[in-house]
Amino acid sequence: MSSSVSAIQLALVLVAMLAILIVLPALLFGVVKQWQVIFLLLGYLGFFQGTIWRVFRYGNLTKTSEDEQFKRRSGRWALAVQFIGLLAVHWLALYDFSRSGVVWRSADNLLQVNVAIFIIGAAIIINQAAIRTLKGFFDRIAIKPDHQLVTTGIYSIVRHPIYLSYVLLFTGFCTMLQSFASCVVLGLVCTIWLGSRIAIEEEMLEARFGEQYKAYQQRTKRLFPFIY
């Protein structure tokens, strides 16, 4: 199958995902025409086009069944938490937004909106920078025969910038819709889902690259520069 066909198929999958996460609940809760929802939808499209570009440029991603997290029982539980949890986060945030009756012109709300826009913009920039640095190595958790340890660009700052970009994107979503409850759920989901994923990935990279990866760990943080 050609890369262009695979990219088109992936684009259709992503559109379906956005329909389930954002469009459907927005329609049900009567907020689909609100500019905040439209902005978030466009932001998500801009974010995920990086994955489509990668497939178009470098070919198919590794099959889900070959992802190391999927192979492990604990990893599958974490993926189940991801799927159910992110669905709950998006629907809950949109429900809270529909019920809030927020006056969006107040100073506090405008500040929160601007913060959300900044966070989502940062998520897109970090995601695109990481994907273009990894190039064909941006994939599911699987070590390839020609795998190389990438430590340049944004990877010289944090070891998992793509996961950081997901945290920022979803946080921006909850912040834009001013849903504290969805932020709490998101924190739990990311702790379980990404905690499992990072542990598995680092275990595999350490086994493959040994002291080289340990030295890389010593000089970088996992997600947040200077913090964690």
Show the helix and strand layout.
Elements: H1 3-28, H2 35-58, H3 68-71, H4 73-100, H5 107-134, H6 161-176, H7 180-209, H8 211-219
Structure description:
The radius of gyration is 18 Å and the shape is globular. It has helices at residues 3-28, 35-58, 68-71, 73-100, 107-134, 161-176, 180-209, 211-219. The protein has a single domain, classed as Four Helix Bundle (Hemerythrin (Met), subunit A). The N and C termini lie far apart (40 Å). By secondary structure, the protein is an all-alpha fold. It has eight helices and no strands. It is 72% helix and 0% strand.
Short description:
The protein is mostly helical and 228 residues long. Helices cover 72% and strands 0% of the residues.
Count of runs of 4 or more consecutive helical residues = 8
Shape: globular
CATH topology: Four Helix Bundle (Hemerythrin (Met), subunit A)
Q: What is the percent of helical residues? A: over 70%
| Domain unit count | 1
Name of the top-level CATH class: Mainly Alpha
CATH architecture classification name? Up-down Bundle
- Radius of gyration equals 18 Å
Order of helices and strands: HHHHHHHH
